[in-house]
Amino acid sequence: MTYTMVKRQRKSISINLVSKQKLDKLSSQEKLDFILREIRQGKVLVLEQGLTPLEQTALIEKTMKEIEEDAFIGIEMDGYLAEDKATLFKRLFGVIRKPGLTVIGPADLIKTIRKDENIIQTEILAERGV
Amino acid sequence: MGLFGKTGLAGIIHRIFGKKHAKIGIYGPPNVGKTTLANRILMDWTGEIMGTVSEIPHETRTAKWKRNIKIENGSSSLYFDIVDTPGIATKIDYKDFMNTYGLSRKEARQRAKEATEGVIESIRWLEEVDGVILVMDSTQDPFTQVNVTILGNLEARNLPVLIAANKIDMEDASPATLKAAFPQHPVVPISALTGYNTDTLYSTMVKHFGKRRWWKRR
Question: Which fold has domain B21-209?
C-alpha cells in the first residue's frame, strides 16, 4: 500500500493499523460503530482483515445516515476480497467472500488513486486541517 | 400480468423449468447510465420512460418501479418488474454540486440530502429484488469499491447479476476490461444511449434471470 502526502498542512495524521484479532472480537454492528467512530475523528484505518460485502453495504448505509454538511461527507474505502472458487456448496448457499486488507478513512482526507490486484495507491489530502 | 397465477400445462412447465416473472433492480454508482438504460428498456418494450437523466450525479434520488414489462427472446419471454435505483456512493458532498455543476447552495444541499436518502433506499431494495443488472461505465476503472461491494453483496445473497458494460459508444470504452475483471458474471457491452447491442442484453436477461434457481434462498 502506498501513501502519498499531497499537502502537509496538518501537524499529523493518524493512520491506525487494526489487527484481525481486534475486529474478530467485535460483532458486525460493533465493528461498524468502531470504524465510523474512528473515521469521524479523522483517522485513517488499515484493517488487516476488512469487512464482508454485507458489512460493507451496512457501513455505506450507516455512513449515509451520519453525513453532515461541512462536518462529515462520507468515507473512502478500498480493499481486497479473497478469491473464492465456486464450489457446489457455495453455489447452493451463496458465496461469502472473506475480506482482505482494507484501507478506510474520511472521504475529505483520503482518496484512492489506483487499485489493482497487488497495490492500492491512496493519497492523503491534508487539506482539512487537524 | 405475470404468469405466476397461470394454470395449465404452460404454467406447470414454467414452474418446473424456469421463472416467468422477475423483479430486477438496476444498480450501480452515480452517472453510469442506470436511468438511461431503464428508459431504453421501457421505450423498447412499453413506449414509456422511467425518469429524467442529467450529467449532474444523483439525478435519480428515489427508486422508480415499473411493473410487468414483457421482454421477448425468440419464442421465450419473461415478465419483469424493473426498479431503477439511485446511484450508490460512499460519500456525498454538497459542495461538489456547487463547485463542479454550478448549483446554488440551497439546491446543492437539498440534492445532497436527497442523495444520501437515495443511497439508503437503494441498499434496502437489495432485500426485495430477484436479480440485478449492475451498470458499469466501460470507460472507467471497474474495480471501484462500490462495484466490488455491490457484487460481493449479491454473491453473498446468491442473487443473479448481469453486468451491463455501458457507454461503449464512447471512444475510450473498454468493455473487455470489465469482462476480464468479472469473469464469473455475464457481461454485456451496450450503449443505453444509442441502443447499441441492447438486443443481446434482452436475450441475456431472459435467459439469465429466467433460469430455474431451485437453490435460491429467499
Answer: Rossmann fold (3.40.50)
Q: Which residues of A touch B156 (CB under 8 A)?
A: 52-54, 94-97
Report the percentage of chain A scoring pLDDT > 70. Answer: 75
> ipTM more than 0.90?
no
Chain B residues whose C-beta is within 8 A of a chain A C-beta are 88-94, 109, 112, 116-117, 119-120, 123-124, 126, 141, 143, 145, 148-153, 155-158, 184, 215, 217
User: Which residues, including other chains, have CB under 8 Å from residue B86's CB and lie 6 or more apart?
Assistant: B30, B58, B60, B61, B62, B63, B115, B118, B119, B121, B122
What is the reported pTM?
Answer: 0.86
The rounded radius of gyration (Å) of the Cα atoms in chain A is: 16
User: B217 pLDDT exceeds 50?
Assistant: no
Nearest Cα of chain A lies from the Cα of B48 at a distance, in angstroms, of: 32
Check if the beta carbon of residue B75 is closer than 8 Å to that of residue B206.
no
- Give the per-residue pLDDT at A4: 45
